[in-house]
């Protein structure tokens, strides 16, 4: 807790390293990238962790994965902040899965209060993404150049200037299955390009 770095205020996994984090707490750390945890060209597995109150001046207030394999399971990610990806940022080929997590009360200045995804297509499974804020787009979830899978997720009570629930840009084509996007202010989903496919969902 209360650490400061350029990459990964709490933990920095880089250059082909493999890091597993179980039952850990990352609290009030600061970095330019990955306020709590940063994975760069690495493998990262996190389970049953709390990532709260961390900040990144650039990307990934709670957790950032960049060109990495990132698996996040059964974690609480809350009250983190960044320019993009207040809670989580996954970018540039990160092969990722986020499952059974609660992602709430995170803030982004530009994109993705809860989760920001760019140039990769993670699987988001059975997550609650709620009460996050983006000062511009995508309070809950922002997707850029992404065909992410969103399954059994609830995206609710998020806020942004536009696309408070989900913002899709650069021909992103997410797949929503058995998911709920509800009560986001001012709108649920906004997209430029192809847009989402929706199956057995309430949006």
Structure description:
The relative contact order is 0.11. The chain contains no helices and 30 strands. The strands form four sheets. An eight-stranded parallel sheet has the order 2-6-10-14-18-22-26-29, with no helix packed on it. An eight-stranded parallel sheet has the order 3-7-11-15-19-23-27-30, with no helix packed on it. It is globular, with a radius of gyration of 15 Å. 0% of the residues lie in helices and 57% in strands. The protein has 203 residues and is mostly beta strands.
What is the distance, rounded to the nearest whole angstrom, between the alpha carbons of the first and last residues? 38 Å
Content of β-strand: over 45%
- Average pLDDT, rounded to a whole number, is 96
Q: Structural class of the helices, strands and pairings?
A: mainly beta
Helix content: under 10%
Features:
203 residues; 8-stranded parallel sheet; 0% helix; globular
Could you give the topology of this structure?
Elements: E1 4-7, E2 11-14, E3 18-22, E4 25-27, E5 30-33, E6 37-40, E7 43-47, E8 50-52, E9 55-59, E10 63-66, E11 69-73, E12 76-78, E13 81-84, E14 88-91, E15 95-99, E16 102-104, E17 107-111, E18 115-118, E19 123-125, E20 128-130, E21 133-137, E22 141-144, E23 149-151, E24 154-156, E25 159-162, E26 166-169, E27 175-177, E28 180-182, E29 189-191, E30 197-199
Parallel strand pairs: 1-5, 2-6, 3-7, 4-8, 5-9, 6-10, 7-11, 8-12, 9-13, 10-14, 11-15, 12-16, 13-17, 14-18, 15-19, 16-20, 17-21, 18-22, 19-23, 20-24, 21-25, 22-26, 23-27, 24-28, 26-29, 27-30
């Amino acid at each position: 807790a209360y650490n400061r770095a350029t990459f990964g205020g709490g933990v920095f996994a880089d250059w082909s390293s493999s890091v597993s984090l179980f039952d850990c707490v990352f609290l009030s750390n600061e970095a330019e990238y990955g306020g709590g945890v940063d994975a760069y060209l690495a493998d990262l597995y996190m389970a049953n962790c709390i990532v709260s109150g961390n900040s990144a001046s650039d990307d990934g207030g709670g957790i950032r994965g960049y060109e990495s394999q990132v698996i996040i399971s059964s974690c609480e990610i809350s009250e983190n902040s960044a320019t993009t990806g207040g809670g989580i940022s996954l970018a540039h080929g990160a092969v990722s899965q986020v499952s059974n997590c609660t992602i709430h009360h995170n803030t982004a200045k530009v994109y993705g209060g809860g989760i920001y995804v760019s140039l990769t297509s993670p699987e988001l499974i059975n997550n609650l993404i709620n009460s996050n804020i983006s000062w511009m787009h995508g309070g809950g979830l922002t997707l850029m150049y992404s065909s992410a899978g969103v399954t059994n997720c609830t995206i609710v009570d998020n806020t942004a200037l536009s696309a408070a629930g989900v913002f899709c840009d650069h021909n992103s084509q997410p797949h929503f299955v058995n998911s709920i996007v509800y009560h986001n202010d001012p709108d649920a989903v906004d997209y430029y390009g192809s847009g989402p496919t929706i199956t057995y969902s309430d949006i």
